[in-house]
Amino acid sequence: MNILFIHQNFPGQFLHLARYAAAQPGNKVIGLGEAENIMRRGSLPGITTLGYAKPAGAGNETHHYLQNTEAETRRGQTVLRSLVTLRKQHFEPDVICLHPGWGEGLFIRDLFPHTPVIMLAEFFFRSGEADIGFDPEFPVSLDWLCSVRLRNTTQLISLEQANVCSSPTAWQASRYPWYIQERSVVQHDGIDTTFMCPNPHETLTIQPLATPGDSMVVAVNETPIPSTAEGQQQPKGAPITFTRETPVITYMARNLEPYRGFHTFMRALPQIQKNHPDAHILIVGGTSTSYSPAPATAKNYKEQYLTELHNQLDLSRIHFLGRIPYLALRAMFRISRAHVYLTYPFVLSWSVLEAMACETPLVASNTAPVQEVATHEKTALLVDFFDPAAVAATIQRTVNCPEEIAPMRRAARQVVVERYELKNCLAANYDLLQKAAAGAFPLR
Which residues contact 215 (CB under 8 A, 6 or more apart)? Predict the structure, then answer.
């Protein structure tokens, strides 16, 4: 088969499937994404990776409701030009897999009217529902609610062209209009539970930096880890090595922002540190925003909440690590006494399943779609997203009563193995790809 994957941050969610497809005899796999992202991430063995130039954004006079739509239209046009060039090189895909969220699928049918297309239905925004208006601390205006009505424009135009859509969780699929759900399947991309697994002998070493609260990972099991620290800071003090015997509490998000409950976690920290004065807090994530609006009164949310909690925190035991390599993330999960995962009703992070696979004690918000993958008192301890006191009290239970929660940890891993194991998800996703290529999902 000739298989084309399109994702502005290729490989994105298609990482495992693209690798698997490329390894099958007789397949030719091409990945297309934004050139800057591809240069930063690198290419995958066995896959021809092509980059398109970053398109211009919306014009200065564009109505603000339409700015995303205009930028995405420009991206779709740029992708179309790349595909025209690819076609001139005599590549005809048997099946196309793409993420429709950024406009890359807008014009796919104009060039490939009969090629089967699989699209990732990741999240559909609805005015006043789910994440929109969920957090009263960040109220949404009528103007913003109106803009949400148009936020799905690109997706709807793109998904209408799909032969079949795929969503990673049932809740995420349920957010879409009925006519999209009718042509959708629920299929997670998978978690490598052979890699993400417990190891009671794991060690993680960090180096505190000059700015109070900032640290960087320097080693996993005494193997040096290349620095990923933002900027150039001088080390301050001796490195610290953590093991499973060290009281370590962890939090992770792609970016530290309200959509992932960063404000609730930060406000829980004073009580957490009172309850566990010997504990170290490891916080992983960038300081930009992925989903939340930028803060109005600070450079980033990390700065905002450190300022809010000034003199309430012992920063010598709080370690902002920035973004860390995958090997270090696994080590963090393996040594953690309590991993905190908080989220608006929104896209489910891979990290929560990866933590469960490592048998990390999980303290998570009782929000969708967390409730789809974790059950209170059986595989995790679920708390009110907005309640810092409940977060602190629940962490106290996981840290102080490890034997009580041991069965919960093992059950959590079993859920991931049974429902989200990579090799099973890969088989299902590749089967979907083969069926689409064979014409099993005629375009309606």
Answer: 206, 207, 208, 209, 240, 319, 320, 321
